[in-house]
Amino acid sequence: MVLRVAQQVDLSAYTGFGVSSRAAHFADITGEEELLQALAYGKQHHLPVFVLGGGTNVLFVRDFPGLILYMNWQGIDWLDEAGLVRTACGENWHSFVINCMTKGFHGLENLALIPGTVGAAPIQNIGAYGVELEQFLVEVRAVDTRTGRVALFDHAACEFAYRDSLFKQGAGRHLIVTHVTLQLSAHWQPNLSYQALRDALSSETPTAEQVFETVCQIRRSKLPDPAITGNAGSFFKNPVISSEKFAALQVDFANIPCFPTDDQDLVKVPAAWLLEQAGWKGRQHGRAAVSAKHALVLVNPGEATGEDIFLLAQEMSSSILQRFGIALQPEVQII
Ligand code: EPU
Predict the structure, then answer these.
(1) Which residue, among 149, 80, 161, has the nearest Cα to 125 in the 3D structure?
(2) Is 306:55 a contact under the CB 8 Å cutoff?
């Protein structure tokens, strides 16, 4: 297969924010051979390389002078009857969730409607409604951009944490995820650990379809649809602070919510609450805005540039630093 590289491609249709940004070079990757050829092309022309999946967690602030590898690699291998499944990186996450549920392989129902591709899921360790991807992850197959070599990473090697993994850190950034192997379950066992999900369900023993539908309903009611209003979900991570700092904040903000973490000296505070208190929810800021549905979601109402969104995010985080002494970290990858 001969690789074709397009020039000066507008990325607005390839990202959740839908902001205009041009990529100097753009390659549509549907398999191993093309990926290796594209890496060679990047080397030959001394280009910075950026790996793009569904573009649902990335903000291009300006034009990109390098090579975009658009990971359009499809394919699902159902490996056994017990729910072991290996999926190519370009599969759409939500369609994959439906596919698994329909086949009778369970676990991913709480992660319904998360935008993006399967390949991006372990990088971010996607999570929602009490479930994180890492709970099912057996192995990630990746290609090293520097050597073109393929490597396999088991669960421990992936170094998963909250919205974080090996693939976001240091040398791990040179790895391109090509396949993800998950162990799902042939037996349905609902995970109802998330209060908002429990509250929304009418039964204490819901079916997989009921949990799936309820998660979809909650997400649709709380989060704007990127196909209609450009956005990238939560823009910032929920900050983790010391219990001591939290107690000090409670003196001034008596009803500040928090969630426990694995470490009893640390608590997680919803960034959306901090932002709503600071008056950001639904606020228009030039051509960019904060969603009226959710204070953690920045949106492109139509005409915003990447820079407009970036500047708004900076103002939001500096106002939270001033008011609460908490530094918000972006969850979205800013290029
Ligand atoms: N809240 C507000 N104002 C708002 C929205 C929420 O004050 O406008 C407060 C409420 O107290 C609410 C709390 O924030 O109880 C938490 O809100 P929500 O349940 O919407 O969850 P979140 O912490 O804002 C996280 C993930 C989401 C995930 C949901 C559900 C992060 C950064 N975000 O959001 O993931 O869907 O939990 O599990 O961890 C994403 O990563 O892009 C994403 C959407």
Answers:
(1) 161
(2) no
Residues with catalytic function: 163, 234, 331
- 5-71: CATH architecture: 2-Layer Sandwich (3.30)
> Which residue is it, tokens 């791990």?
172
Domain 224-334 has CATH 3.90.1150.10: no
Atom of ligand 1 nearest to the CA of 296: 24
Q: How far is the CA of 237 from the centre of ligand 1 (A)?
A: 9
Spell out the residues 6+ positions from residue 213 whose beta carbon is closer than 8 angstroms to its own: none
**What does the angle CA 307 – CA 310 – CA 312 come to, to the nearest 5 degrees?**
110
CA of 146 to the centre of ligand 1 (A): 37
- Index of the ligand 1 atom closest to the CA of residue 273: 7
Q: Which atom of ligand 1 has the smallest separation from the CA of 162?
A: 39
DSSP, collapsed to helix, strand or coil, labels residue 202 as coil
**Architecture of 76-220 per CATH?**
2-Layer Sandwich (3.30)
The domains of the chain are located at 5-71, 76-220, 224-334
Model pTM?
Answer: 0.95
CA 33 vs. chain centroid, Å, equals 27
The binding-site residues of ligand 1, defined as CB within 6 angstroms of any ligand atom, are 128-129, 196, 222, 233-234, 237-238, 257, 270, 272-273, 276, 281, 294-296, 331
* Per-residue pLDDT of the chain in tens (335 residues, 90 and over written 9): 789 999 999 999 999 999 999 999 999 999 999 999 999 999 999 999 999 999 999 999 999 999 999 999 999 999 999 999 999 999 999 999 999 999 999 999 999 999 999 999 999 999 999 999 999 999 999 999 999 999 999 999 999 999 999 999 999 999 999 999 999 999 999 999 999 999 999 899 999 999 999 999 999 999 999 999 999 999 999 999 999 999 999 999 999 999 999 899 999 999 999 999 999 999 999 999 999 999 999 999 999 999 999 999 999 999 999 999 999 999 999 99
